[in-house]
Amino acid sequence: MADWFWSRPYLLLTFTALFWAGNSIVGRAVRDILPPAAFAFWRWAFALFICSSIAALSCWDQQRRAFISTSCP
Fold first, then answer.
1. Which of 9, 27, 46, 61 is the most buried (most CB within 10 A)?
2. Distance (Å, whole) CA 58 – CA 9
């Protein structure tokens, strides 16, 4: 499934435009609630959480495969 997703450049470019537009809309919506620096901090904190979660899952899968290949004859 992941190979199918990453091999579709037009789909990825569409998601890029949607995320960029969504960020602009959310930024305008919260400009009276949050200062710009706080909004930028929380946006990057959320992105870091998502990216680290994906990386942790990938590392865990690689460790599991390595353990299975070395422990099974």
1. 27
2. 22
Q: Distance between CA 2 and CA 38 in Å, rounded?
A: 33
The total number of residues shown for the chain amounts to 73
Condensed to tens digits (0 to 9), the pLDDT of residues 1-59 reads 667 777 889 998 999 999 999 989 999 999 999 999 999 999 999 999 999 998 888 78
Whether the Cβ atoms of residue 69 and residue 49 lie closer than 8 Å to each other: no
The tokens for 41 are 């901090």
CA distance 48 to 31: 22
String of DSSP letters for 7-52: T-HHHHHHHHHHHHHHHHHHHHHSTTTS-HHHHHHHHHHHHHHHHH
**DSSP state, 70?**
H
What is the amino acid identity at position 65?
R
